[in-house]
Design brief:
Blueprint (H helix, E strand, L loop, with lengths): L1 E5 L3 H12 L3 E6 L3 H10 L3 E3 L2 H7 L4 E4 L6 H10 L3 E4 L7 H14 L3 E3 L7 H11 L6 E9 L4 H5 L14 H17 L2 E9 L11 E8 L4 E7 L9 E6 L2 E6 L2 E7 L18 H19 L7 H20 L3 E2 L3
Parallel strand pairs: 1-2, 1-4, 2-3, 4-5, 5-6, 7-10
Antiparallel strand pairs: 7-11, 8-9, 8-14, 9-10, 11-12, 12-13
Helix pairs in contact: 4-5, 5-10, 8-10
Length: 334
């Protein structure tokens, strides 16, 4: 499969490495910074372009990886769909529900495949927990706790003029880092219906977004989830996810199934991710999502992570922000 990348920044470099590790070919890199795009393109034997339209006109391209800043995701993905390309778009799907819905409409009109990066769902211990829920090992799921206690120095926000802005970044610790842990919590507990939250900006200067967010999320099943997202927790900790049920508890910590107890038996068997031996489990999970996306295109089936899944996580993030802004609980609508 022949790919183009839209965006040659840090995350674009990650996507290029993933494509190179699969039975796929990177043929084009699009970036307004022509020098940056040319450097990435040259490394993988691709060609650089200043605009996506130029790349689409010049190259045979099957799929596009969208790696531009968050507020540009939907527009870049829609342009690719209208040019007849399948799309894998970085998280979040965009920064507004209006943009996410425009992308969903475009996907349905074109009949092409779109997936949103949520690679942590592919980690074997995460899949074990989900399998335990589906198999009844935890009984009725009653609560969950997701912690994304990361650290970003001031230089992280100072390095790009769009980082930490509401207009382009859309949010901070939750929208851009904690959304992965939030996505897992929502995947495990189901449909969120009500959110109460607080956010803060405690450790960084010159930014418009939060570096700390805490939320209580009530789900349609009655389960309650707690979410903590931070970029102000030195030196930073791996994602921690705890799922409680009336028949068991499972804990993900430091990318392993750190604890599992069930009245109904042992945890499901863990899968093994394929890929380079020197890659971390999170990197291998990212690779697994790319592999699923390619298979979904070839098999004409929905990808494991759909646009609707990405929209649900985005809607929950935006509900957190709305609750923190108004000081009131926010009801989530379909």
């Amino acid at each position: 499969m022949r790919f183009a990348l839209i965006g040659a920044g840090a995350i674009g470099t990650v996507h290029a490495r993933l494509i190179d590790a699969l039975e796929a070919t990177l043929v084009a890199v699009v970036d307004q910074d022509l020098e940056r795009g040319a450097q990435l393109a040259e490394h993988y034997g691709a060609k650089p372009y200043a605009t996506a339209a130029e790349a689409y006109a010049a190259e045979e391209i099957d799929a596009v990886g969208v790696c531009v800043p968050s507020a540009l995701h939907a527009d870049a993905a829609i342009e690719a769909l209208q040019a007849g390309k399948h799309v894998i778009v970085e998280k979040p799907v965009d920064i507004t529900l209006e943009a996410a819905d425009r992308l969903i409409v475009a996907e349905r009109k074109t009949g092409l495949t779109v997936s949103v990066i949520s690679q942590r769902r592919f980690q074997p211990p995460v899949a074990q927990i989900r399998a335990a829920i589906d198999g009844g090992s935890l009984g009725r799921v009653t609560s969950g706790i997701a912690e994304s206690a990361f650290f970003r120095p001031q230089s992280y926000y100072d390095g790009d003029d769009w980082r930490g802005t509401l207009a382009v970044d859309g949010g901070g610790a939750l929208m851009n880092q904690g959304i992965h842990a939030l996505d897992l919590l929502v995947w495990m507990l189901g449909k969120p219906v009500r959110v109460s939250a607080e956010t803060g900006r405690l450790a960084h200067k010159g930014i418009e977004v939060e570096d700390l967010a805490g939320a209580t999320i009530v789900f349609e099943s009655g389960a309650i989830g707690l979410m903590l997202a931070s970029t102000a927790a030195y030196p930073g900790r791996p994602v921690r996810l705890t799922i409680h049920g009336d028949q068991g508890t499972a804990v993900l910590d430091d990318d392993v199934l750190a604890y599992f107890a069930s009245a109904n038996g042992q945890p499901p068997e863990a899968a093994t991710l394929e890929g380079p031996e020197d890659w971390s489990e999170v990197e291998l999970a990212h690779l697994a999502q790319y592999r699923d996306f390619i298979a979904a295109v070839r098999e004409d089936r929905p990808p494991a992570i759909t646009l609707e899944a990405g929209r649900r996580s985005l809607a929950t993030v935006l509900a957190v922000y709305e609750s923190a802004r108004t000081g009131r609980p926010v009801e989530l609508e379909d």
